[in-house]
Specification:
The protein is 30% helix and 25% strand. By secondary structure, it is an alpha/beta fold. The chain is globular and about 50 Å long.
Amino acid sequence: MNDKERIPVYLLTGFLGSGKTTLLNSLVKQPGMERTLILINEFGEVGLDHLLVSHSTEDIVVELDSGCLCCTTRGDFAKTLRDIPWRYSREGKRSFDRVMIETTGLADPTSVIHTLMTDHSVYLQFRLQAVVTTVDAVNGQATLERHIESRKQVGVADLLLVTKTDLVDDEKVVAEFLQQLAELNPTADIRVADGGTIAADIILQLDHIEPIDSTTPLNKWLNITSFTIQPATKTRLAFRELNPVITMQNDINRHDAHIQAQCFVFDTPFTEARLDLWLEIITKLMGQNLLRLKGIINVEGFTGPVVIHGVQHIFHPAARWPEWPDEDRRTKLVFITYDTPRELIERTFDLFLIPSAIESSESAQPATL
């Protein structure tokens, strides 16, 4: 398949009791959701239309009145994905147009994302459109403080749906919680799910994963306007003077010191070799603590930007745009990290993204981590 023929996949995640099943029950009844295959990965707590599937030992397929298919799966998730195009076909034609995957509340969504990104046969057939995370307004803040899985679910989301706001009497509490989520993941769209649901079109129109095929503008994809400028640390002065870097981040100390959302903006283009080396090092250095990295990068000799997008140590193939979307040619990198000091990221820039001008400068000194 070419990129436009790959089957779109929407990943629905969220902690226990955050309202995933309520949301799904509403979505499958809405126009536009026909011919959707719902995969309940590793067993949801309660299946759609109150079909109890958590104790089944075999895969169960249910055809819903709306025209959707609901399937519970166990075992090799990659094999399940590879098999469903022919398994759920009628007279040689696939019986679904999209896939929506529900994870369990305790699941780390990055494992599913990695399968969709790294399994070659899966990647050729499926395109991850977006990660949707439900967050409970009543218990969400306590859950974020106690469970790393919940923080990862928020950190990798493209759309955060806040549920159960009607159960919170104080509107100020809800507003503060929404602000907390915006600080934890400033790249995500945040909406309140009235009555536990939302219009299906809002989800189906998401295309935030592979920006080369996305209708979402690059600047909106990064959303760096949500950051505030912070002073960069005074290290590697030769690098700073020849290649000024603007460091931006959200006020991480207000709610959660573990997750940090940070943005770095560079004026000077980078060499392709240095970029490749830096990507290799940053993924090895940060590993699982790199929840997400998005970037629009100005590379010497390229007429348009290079766009990167990674989850932990796995990256989508870098995309070369033929031209810049506007007059802003600066490199912009957005990090969402876990327990990673800002200074550590800055030092990797000094080591691996030093432009050629610095390499020829007598004032440049070797950098060390």
